[in-house]
């Protein structure tokens, strides 16, 4: 049974605050099936890493990042290892000034402190002090910038066949020309359609997929050697170099910082890979 961060009846009851928050830490991993609700939801990890599925896109939320899901947007969530995380639920009518599309954001210390305070509230109507804190959360979310912690999926069935195959085996190092032949289209068409449908070149998409999977495996405590092999890197050094370029730190330091909910280094950015 999945333990709710906030009692479900509070999310739909009349005369409840426009903003409610909850925190939860459990020894077991957490998995929430695909669902939607009228409130917008901002969710993040206190430590470790959570993955959020929105349609055919997959987002990851290391500690100090969060995923925003607008009202009525179907989504799922799972943690990698024991779960320690939080969520903020915002009434539909107050979401008009917030991002209209799902996004990953880098949380500020102010936002994290405000969410922690809001998570201690009982669900009663907000007093003046609580209302000010709730508005801080709203302001921080409205001012946030989107971070590249998602993996966009194409809609062309031929491209989907390639991305599904790669997702199943990220160690597959076939070149673009080989994938094009396998999927039954020309290399030029594959290259053009990939950029048009995902905003990334084929090489960038594969590098981003490898980075996001690396973040998941690091959060699960998998050894660096095992991760390098699973993702198709020639050696451990090549994997560590990629990880450092993308996150600003090594896998070991990243894992330690995520566990303690500290800044792990530079923001994880979209990785680059030579074709």
From TrEMBL:
<keyword id="KW-0804">Transcription</keyword>
<protein>
    <submittedName>
        <fullName>Transcriptional regulator, AraC family</fullName>
    </submittedName>
</protein>
<dbReference type="GO" id="GO:0043565">
    <property type="term" value="F:sequence-specific DNA binding"/>
</dbReference>
<keyword id="KW-0805">Transcription regulation</keyword>
<dbReference type="InterPro" id="IPR011051">
    <property type="entry name" value="RmlC_Cupin_sf"/>
</dbReference>
<dbReference type="InterPro" id="IPR009057">
    <property type="entry name" value="Homeodomain-like_sf"/>
</dbReference>
<keyword id="KW-0238">DNA-binding</keyword>
<feature type="domain" description="HTH araC/xylS-type">
    <location>
        <begin position="160"/>
        <end position="257"/>
    </location>
</feature>
<dbReference type="Pfam" id="PF12833">
    <property type="entry name" value="HTH_18"/>
</dbReference>
<keyword id="KW-0678">Repressor</keyword>
<dbReference type="InterPro" id="IPR020449">
    <property type="entry name" value="Tscrpt_reg_AraC-type_HTH"/>
</dbReference>
<dbReference type="GO" id="GO:0003700">
    <property type="term" value="F:DNA-binding transcription factor activity"/>
</dbReference>
<dbReference type="InterPro" id="IPR018062">
    <property type="entry name" value="HTH_AraC-typ_CS"/>
</dbReference>
<feature type="region of interest" description="Disordered">
    <location>
        <begin position="254"/>
        <end position="275"/>
    </location>
</feature>
<dbReference type="InterPro" id="IPR018060">
    <property type="entry name" value="HTH_AraC"/>
</dbReference>
């Amino acid at each position: 049974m999945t333990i709710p961060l906030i009692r479900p009846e509070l999310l739909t009851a009349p005369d409840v605050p426009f903003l409610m928050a909850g925190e939860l830490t459990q020894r077991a991993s957490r998995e929430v099936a695909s669902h939607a609700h009228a409130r917008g939801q901002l969710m993040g990890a206190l430590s470790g890493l959570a993955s959020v599925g929105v349609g055919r896109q997959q987002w990851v939320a290391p500690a100090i990042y969060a995923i925003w899901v607008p009202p009525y947007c179907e989504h799922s969530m799972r943690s990698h290892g024991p779960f320690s995380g939080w969520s903020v639920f915002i009434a539909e009518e107050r979401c008009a000034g917030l991002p209209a599309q799902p996004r990953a954001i880098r949380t500020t210390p102010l936002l994290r402190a405000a969410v922690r305070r809001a998570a201690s509230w009982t669900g009663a109507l907000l007093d003046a002090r609580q209302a000010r804190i709730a508005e801080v959360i709203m302001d921080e979310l409205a001012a946030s910038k989107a971070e590249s912690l998602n993996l966009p999926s194409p809609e062309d069935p031929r491209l989907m066949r390639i991305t599904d195959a790669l997702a199943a085996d990220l160690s597959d190092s076939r070149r673009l020309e080989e994938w094009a032949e396998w999927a039954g289209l020309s290399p030029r068409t594959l290259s053009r359609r990939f950029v048009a449908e995902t905003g990334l070149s084929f090489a960038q998409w594969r590098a981003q997929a490898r980075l996001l999977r690396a973040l998941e495996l690091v959060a699960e405590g998998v050894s660096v050697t095992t991760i390098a092999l699973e993702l198709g890197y020639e050696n451990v050094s090549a994997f560590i170099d990629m990880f450092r370029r993308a996150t600003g730190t090594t896998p070991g330091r990243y894992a330690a910082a995520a566990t303690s909910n500290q800044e792990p280094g530079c923001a994880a950015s979209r990785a680059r890979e030579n074709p």
